[in-house]
Design goal:
Strand content: under 5%
Oligomer: single chain
Radius of gyration: 17 Å
Structural class: mainly alpha
Length: 93
């Protein structure tokens, strides 16, 4: 799942190199997706989290492919649950 998210964001953001990944390009992508179906704050945060994790790996001491994660300080979108979970009542069991 994570790999597919990253690959799709690479395509949609037209990133060709690690240096192309910026907080601004991620915010623009997120802004474009915000009005589309299946794009809640939680879902969009998960997509950005996938890229964030990849960039953390690229910046890790063992890898050192980049100096620092360019989206490390990116703000998260608020998450509003679509429904509230609750325990079943006895008659519902």
């Amino acid at each position: 799942v994570m790999r597919k998210r990253i690959e799709r964001m690479i395509r949609e953001c037209r990133w060709t190199r690690l240096r192309d990944v910026t907080a601004q390009s991620c915010q623009e992508w997120r802004r474009e997706r915000a009005g589309k179906p299946r794009s809640s704050g939680k879902t969009l945060n998960q997509w950005i989290d996938s890229v964030h994790a990849f960039m953390e790996w690229a910046a890790a001491q063992e890898q050192r492919r980049i100096a620092a994660n360019p989206i490390a300080g990116m703000a998260r979108l608020p998450h509003t649950p679509t429904f509230v979970r609750r325990a079943l009542h006895a008659h519902e069991l």
